[in-house]
Structure formats: C-alpha cells, structure tokens
C-alpha cells in the first residue's frame, strides 16, 4: 500500500534546517549524486518504511487518528482500509516522533515548540506504557548467574551484618566497590569483581541463603514466570563451606521460596563448569548436577573468563558434557564471547558438545553462523551486558540481535546475564528491543513465547507456560 505524504511547503513552517537541502538525502554522497529521497512530494511504503520530508506526518502536527481521517477525507482510504491500517499508522507515528527527537538531540534539526513539546510528552507517556507492558508480560529468564544477579543493595545489607559480626572484616562497603549506577565493567574488570569481592562476601550458608532469596524475589517482581539460575559450585575454606553444601543451600533456598503460596514463578538450577577447570574438576561438577537432579538441577553450563585460557584446549570437556547429556541434563555454553577464544576450530569443538542453547554468540564467522542456523540452536542474547562490557562494537542499535531477528532461523532468548552488575532487568531488555529494533507489543509477546521450547524444565512445565502466555495474550487483546 502506498500513500502520498505532505509536500515540502506544508512541512517548512515546522522545521528549520541547519544544512540546506540535506533533509531529502541520507548523506552528502547521495546529495551530490542526486539519489536517495526524491525532491518535492515524498512517499511512504508500509513494507520498506521509507519516509520523506523528515517524516512529515509528525511535522504537520497531526495525530495518527487525524492523519487517517485526512486520508479518508481526501479519498485515499475508505473506512475499511482506514481500520486495517490504523495499527501501522499508529506505529509509524510513534516511530516518527522518536526519530525526530533523536535528530533534535543530535542538532540535525530544530523542531518548533508546536512539534517538540507534544512529541516529548507523547514519547514520555508511550515509554511509560511500554515499560509497564514489558514488566507485566510473562517472561522466561534462561541466562542469569546467581552471584551476578545480587543487587548492590542486597550486598550492602550482607556487608552490614558481616561488619557487625566481624568488625575487622577486610572488605570495603559494596556501595564503594560497586558504586550505584556504574555499569561499565569490561571483561578485564568484570571477573575480578567476583573473585576478589563478591565471592569473599557471600561465602557462608547465611549469606548464600539470603542472597538467593533476594535474587528470586527480584526476578519474580519483574514478571518472570520461569527462571533457570546458573551457578558454579564453590567451596570456601575460610568458612568451611563445601561445594556440596553450597549447592544444597541454593536448592534449599529455592525450595523454601516456592513453598510460599503467593509465588507463581518456577525456578530450576544449572551448574556451571569453568572453562579454566581441569578435566577432573569439571567432571566433579557434572557428578554434582546428576546427584541433585531430583531436586531441581536440570542442566549444565560452560562459563568462565573468555580471556583466560583453560588448562588445555576445550576438547577435554567433550566427555564431560557427553556424560551430562546421557544423564538427561540440558547443555548450554558460553559461546564466542571474546575474539581471543572464538576461532572456528574452538567453536566447532564446542558445537560438538551438542548444546541445546548457546549464549552471547558475538564473534562468529559466516561458516559458524551457517552451522548455528542449520542446527536452529536457541540463542541466549544478553544485550545490555554486551554493550556495557564493550563486548560488541557500538551501542544497543548495533547489537547482533537485529541480524538474528531478521533471519528468523534460531529461537532468540533475551537474558540479563548479571543484572546486579549491569543493572538492566529482563523487562528492560524487552524495552530495549522495542526501542532500538522496532518490535511491536505483539512481537514482544511472540519473542517471550518462543523462549518456552528451549527451557530445560520438561514438557509439563512447557505446557504450563504456553497456557499462561496464551491466556495473558487473550486477556490483553493482542
């Protein structure tokens, strides 16, 4: 469907250009060559979403309703066509407002108050509505590290209790170590934050139990219906806590939390092998996962600092993960996080472990990408983590979510990774893809719904989630 937009003369009163005639071209090269958006009356195509005259629907100060009525009055749409295009018209209008505000922020154009003020108000209201929608949307979180999901406030509370019991504790207040609002941790500074601080603070039964409960509360408050937490079994010699006791404490905390009648979120556990582990240490982690399978351990993970090479190459873990699969455990892997450990040779070895899901998936060649698509592997994508940690080049709009979303070859799973460090909830990850990649509310629902099949929680849990999601969609008339 094509619709003629307003002419330049109709637009002129509402915008002053800083560079003459640049409004019809995407760049100077197009201006010189005379290509790009054509002069005079512009046009818009619903499928290609090409707009001219600085998206003149907004510059003419018309609401989407008024714009539609104008088309109808001019004979360009009948009543039935107006009804059918109204959702797209509204989406076009909102996209236009957002784009114009971005341009004004970059000083590309100056909007008159008749446009700018209503636009700011509209976007503010629409953003609030989007945030509420994304929080209420039932969501599934499949890539969340337990220790990395502990908020600074929770760590501060644990610190105060430890300080009272041990005045000479050799740790600073977490509000100093991890200042509120600081999220720019890269791969060089991220991992030491855990080894040198968080693991030293949460190293006994009481602190692990308290922090686990708080993490569960935070995820459920954010609208998570199903959660797979992951953690590496640890022993703390200073407190006498063994790996077995650590895993039991986490599982007991989950069991105790789910006994609350008001709790509807289902939580299961994944145990993580550190890529720097020896074969025997990795095998011990798998044995623990098998031992506690009856209590809610449903899978295993390969994680760890991708900048630090393991003791030997990753082929030593093939037998380890084969044993996990043979015992009915799901397998997920941190995959292509850093260029240093993302050679085709290494990634093919990881794929030989036959994972059900892979996480991050940043530094992949075309050959590896083709193989991933061929297998239709579920991708755990952690957008805020990748941006803040500078694991990708650029910002949110440059994230590889866009490419995978367009291709529709693999199920995509939005994840937080470490919400306690990067301060972006799973709801906010949905807001991000709506903002930067133009997903509609229905597409956000579909994105959440497609996360059901890749869970490790079994068919009964998948059925519960499907029923929940369908009921929610019908109730919200999507």
Layout of strands and helices, then pairs:
Blueprint: E1 2-4, H1 8-11, E2 15-17, H2 28-33, E3 43-45, H3 56-59, H4 64-73, H5 79-105, E4 109-111, H6 113-136, E5 139-145, H7 152-165, H8 174-177, H9 187-201, H10 205-221, E6 224-231, H11 243-258, E7 266-274, H12 279-291, E8 297-303, H13 318-326, E9 330-335, H14 344-351, E10 357-360, H15 366-375, E11 378-381, H16 383-388, H17 401-407, E12 412-414, H18 419-422, H19 426-437, H20 441-449, H21 459-475
Parallel strand pairs: 5-6, 6-7, 7-8, 8-9, 9-10, 10-11, 11-12
Antiparallel strand pairs: 1-3, 2-4
Helix pairs in contact: 4-5, 5-6, 6-19, 10-11, 12-13
Could you please describe the fold and organization of this structure?
The protein is α/β, with parallel strands linked by helices and 478 residues long. It folds into two domains: 2-130, no CATH class; 137-475, TIM Barrel. The chain is built from 21 helices and twelve strands. The chain has helices at 8-11, 28-33, 56-59, 64-73, 79-105, 113-136, 152-165, 174-177, 187-201, 205-221, 243-258, 279-291, 318-326, 344-351, 366-375, 383-388, 401-407, 419-422, 426-437, 441-449, 459-475; strands spanning 2-4, 15-17, 43-45, 109-111, 139-145, 224-231, 266-274, 297-303, 330-335, 357-360, 378-381, 412-414. An eight-stranded parallel β-sheet has the order 5-6-7-8-9-10-11-12, sandwiched between helices. The chain has a two-stranded antiparallel ribbon with strand order 1-3. A two-stranded antiparallel sheet has the order 2-4. β10, α15 and β11 form a beta-alpha-beta unit. α5 (79-105) packs across α6, α6 (113-136) packs across α19 (426-437) and α10 (205-221) crosses α11 (243-258). The longest helix is centred in the first third of the chain and has 27 residues, at 79-105. The chain is globular, with a radius of gyration of 26 Å.
